[in-house]
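As agreed, record minuted below.
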Amino acid sequence: MSNGLIDLETLRHSSAHVMAAAVSRLFDQVQLDIGPSTEDGFYYDFDLEARITPEDFERIEAEMQQIIDEDLPFERIEVSRDEAKEILKGQKYKLERLADVPDGEAITFFSCG
């Protein structure tokens, strides 16, 4: 990244975060799990009352574009376990993942705006 360009893995990871933000804006009570980059792109696991259908893709993509157009900064933040629990309040899968983080290991979040 010394040339100022974003590497493909970072782009995919960031895209997963943008998609999660878009789905969270569009669907009430969404439960987020993980959203890693993959060899071919990225994905995100969501738990919703209703299934996301192909008809929803256009709305999700438009909301993702809206978030991108807002040009919000991406920031990596490190927090305490108690702060993480507060941030993740109501997100059962994320809280389960937090419980798997060994004591003493850094707990980090990426925020977008």
Summary: The CA atoms of residues 28 and 58 lie 18 Å apart. The chain has one domain: 8-112.
